[in-house]
Amino acid sequence: MLKELIRNKIDIVDNVNDWEEAVRKGAELLIENRCIEPRYVDCIINNIKEKGPYIILGDGMAMSHARPEDGVIKNGITLLKIKNGFDFDEKNRIFLLFTLAAENNDKHQDLMGEIADLLNESEKIKRIMYDELTDLEIYDIILQ
After folding, report:
1. For the segment 90-136, what is each residue's pLDDT rounded down to a tens digit?
2. pTM of the predicted model, to two decimals?
3. Which of 38, 115, 126, 135 has the maximal Cβ count within 10 Å?
4. Which residues contact 62 (CB under 8 A, 6 or more apart)?
5. What is the CATH number of the domain that holds 50?
């Protein structure tokens, strides 16, 4: 499911100013593809402000998400690569931000499992994170 949902939803930027800009930028393709309502992004940002950095996956990666009832229209996932990274906080520099939209808890768990499988492939992740790649090259790495 991950491979189908992330197709044409990979974006690459040089920089972002802060985590809030990264979350907004990471969700743009979900909004454009009518996977989420704009209010979903506001819920993610409010959740981070209230609960702290729950989206940090470690080792330069994060995954922003909120609840299905917060504005999910259909399942979707994006990947935002920030070439120069940004400091989420004093401990975490983020280079890859996944943004997840799941219609229900079962889909959420399925997608989280597929993302976890990808993240366990450290060579793929290192290439995606640090190599100079296009969005199509990143997609090809995910497909492998």
Report:
1. 889 999 999 999 998 888 788 888 888 888 888 999 999 999 999 99
2. 0.93
3. 115
4. 22, 53, 55, 56, 88, 92, 94, 96, 97, 98
5. 3.40.930.10
